[in-house]
C-alpha cells in the first residue's frame, strides 16, 4: 500500500475515509485518539471526556484491547476502598517508522502508538542521498530492528518528513533542491522497498503539527512555525487550529522569501533569500565544525566565548527578526515557534528578537505575540512524521488494525 501527503485527523489532515460522527468506528477512533494524544486515561476519565456511558466505554476499550491497539490495567492504589477505574494506554507495540532524510544524515526512528521512541538512529551521509538510497536505508533498518527492538512490534506505516516541496495529493516530492530531487514518487519507492504503507510530507509542515499537538504550540490555535535544518529554512502554518498547506501543499516556504536587511554589514549575499542569510552552514563555520547534529551545534554555540561566534548569532537574529515581522504582519499569529538551529538562536537572543520583531511589525499584530523555541527539540520532525504515518489508523482503528 502506498500513500501521499496524508494529514492527521483533527488538524486538516483527514484520513481517506473518516468514520461518521457517533458511529461505532467513530467512537473507537475517539477513544484511541484520546489515549494516543493525552497518555494513560482511566475508563472514568474517558467516560467524562466523551459523554459515552460506562458500559459503552468498557465495550469499546475491550475491542481496542483485542485488536492490540491499547493495553488496560487495574492500578494498585494503596488504601483505596473499592475497585479503581481501569487505566487505558495506547500500545507501544504498534509503531510508526519515522524518517527525516537530510543532506548530512538520515534520521530514522520507531515511534510507538503511545508516543514512546523505541529506537532512533542518525546515519551520517558520505554524499547527498538519492531517493533509492533513502528507501533502501529504511528497509535495511527495519529489517535489523525486527531482530531486536521491534521483534514484538507491528508496523502501522512509514512517515517521511522531506525538506522540500511535497505535492499534497499524492506525496510526490516535487522539488527538494538541497537533496537534488525533482518529481520523485518517494512514497511508492519506500513502500516497494519495505512492503509497508508509506506517506510523505514536508518536514516543516510535520514539525508544525508536532509542536502544535504536543510541544510549544499546544493549546494555541494560530501558530507560525519555522524549521531550521541542514537544507535551509522551511515553515508550517496553523490557522484556527488547522494546518494550512495551500492549493498544492506548498505553503510555508519562508526560507525562499527575501528578508528585509537594513544594514549592508548584515548582508552575506547580493540578493539572497532568508535561508542564505540565516544559515546553519554559517553557524557551523563560525564554530569550526564541518557537520554536527542539533544538540552538538547548540552546545558549541551556547558555550563559545568567541566574539566572531557571538557576532554571527546576533547578525542572524537581526535578519530573522525582519522575516518574522513580515510573517506577523501577514498572518497575525499568537505564537511563533522556532525549531532546529533557529531554536538555538531564539534561546541565545530571545530579547533581541522579540524587541526587533515588535519594532518592525505593526503594533496591533505584535502586541500579544509570543516567540518560543520548539519544545520537542530534535524529536520534532520524527514525531510529526510518526503522526502522519499513524493518521489512518487513528482515524479508523476498526478498519486499519
Automatic annotation (TrEMBL):
A GO molecular function assigned to this protein is: kinase activity
Spell out the InterPro entries in the cross-references: ATPase_NBD (IPR043129), ROK (IPR000600), WH-like_DNA-bd_sf (IPR036388), WH_DNA-bd_sf (IPR036390)
Pfam families linked: HTH_24, ROK
Its recorded name reads: NBD/HSP70 family sugar kinase
Source organism of this protein record: Microbacterium foliorum
Where is there biased composition of kind Polar residues? 1-20
Task: Map out region (Disordered) in residue numbers.
Answer: 1-22
Q: Where are the transmembrane segments?
A: none
Q: Which UniProt keywords apply?
A: Kinase, Transferase
Task: Give the family from UniProt.
Answer: Belongs to the ROK (NagC/XylR) family.
Amino acid at each position: 500500500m502506498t500513500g501521499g501527503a496524508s494529514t492527521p485527523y483533527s488538524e486538516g489532515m483527514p484520513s481517506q475515509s473518516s468514520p461518521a460522527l457517533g458511529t461505532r468506528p467513530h467512537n473507537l477512533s475517539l477513544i484511541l485518539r484520546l489515549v494516543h494524544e493525552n497518555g494513560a486515561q482511566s475508563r472514568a476519565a474517558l467516560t467524562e471526556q466523551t459523554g459515552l456511558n460506562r458500559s459503552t466505554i468498557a465495550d469499546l476499550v475491550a475491542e481496542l484491547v483485542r485488536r492490540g491497539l491499547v493495553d488496560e490495567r487495574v492500578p494498585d492504589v494503596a488504601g483505596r476502598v473499592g475497585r479503581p477505574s481501569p487505566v487505558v494506554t495506547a500500545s507501544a507495540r504498534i509503531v510508526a517508522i519515522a524518517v527525516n532524510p537530510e543532506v548530512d544524515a538520515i534520521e530514522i526512528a520507531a515511534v510507538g502508538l503511545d508516543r514512546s521512541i523505541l529506537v532512533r538512529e542518525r546515519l551520517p551521509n558520505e554524499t547527498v542521498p538519492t531517493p533509492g538510497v533513502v528507501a533502501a536505508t529504511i528497509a535495511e533498518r527495519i529489517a535489523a530492528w525486527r531482530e531486536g527492538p521491534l521483534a514484538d512490534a507491528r508496523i502501522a506505516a512509514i512517515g517521511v518528513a522531506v525538506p522540500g516541496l511535497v505535492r499534497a495529493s499524492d506525496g510526490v516530492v516535487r522539488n527538494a533542491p538541497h537533496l537534488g530531487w525533482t518529481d520523485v514518487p518517494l512514497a511508492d519507492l519506500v513502500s516497494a522497498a519495505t512492503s509497508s504503507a508509506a506517506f510523505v510530507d514536508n518536514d516543516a509542515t510535520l514539525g508544525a503539527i508536532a509542536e502544535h499537538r504536543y510541544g510549544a504550540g499546544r493549546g494555541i490555535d494560530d501558530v507560525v512555525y519555522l524549521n531550521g535544518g541542514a537544507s535551509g529554512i522551511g515553515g508550517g502554518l496553523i490557522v484556527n487550529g488547522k494546518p494550512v498547506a495551500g492549493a498544492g501543499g506548498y505553503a510555508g516556504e519562508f526560507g525562499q522569501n527575501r528578508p528585509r536587511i537594513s544594514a549592508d554589514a548584515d548582508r552575506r549575499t547580493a540578493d539572497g533569500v532568508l535561508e542564505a542569510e540565516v544559515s546553519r552552514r554559517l553557524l557551523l563555520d563560525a564554530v569550526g565544525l564541518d557537520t554536527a547534529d542539533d544538540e552538538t551545534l547548540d552546545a558549541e554555540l551556547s558555550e563559545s566565548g568567541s566574539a566572531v561566534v557571538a557576532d554571527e548569532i546576533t547578525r542572524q537574529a537581526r535578519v530573522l527578526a525582519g522575516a518574522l515581522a513580515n510573517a506577523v504582519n501577514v498572518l497575525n499569529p499568537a505564537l511563533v515557534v522556532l525549531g532546529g538551529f533557529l531554536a538555538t538562536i531564539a534561546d541565545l537572543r530571545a530579547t533581541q528578537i522579540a524587541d526587533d520583531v515588535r519594532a518592525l511589525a505593526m503594533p496591533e499584530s505584535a502586541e500579544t505575540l509570543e516567540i518560543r523555541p520548539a519544545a520537542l527539540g530534535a524529536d520534532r520532525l520524527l514525531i510529526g512524521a510518526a503522526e502522519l504515518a499513524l493518521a489512518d489508523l487513528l482515524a479508523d482503528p476498526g478498519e486499519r488494525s
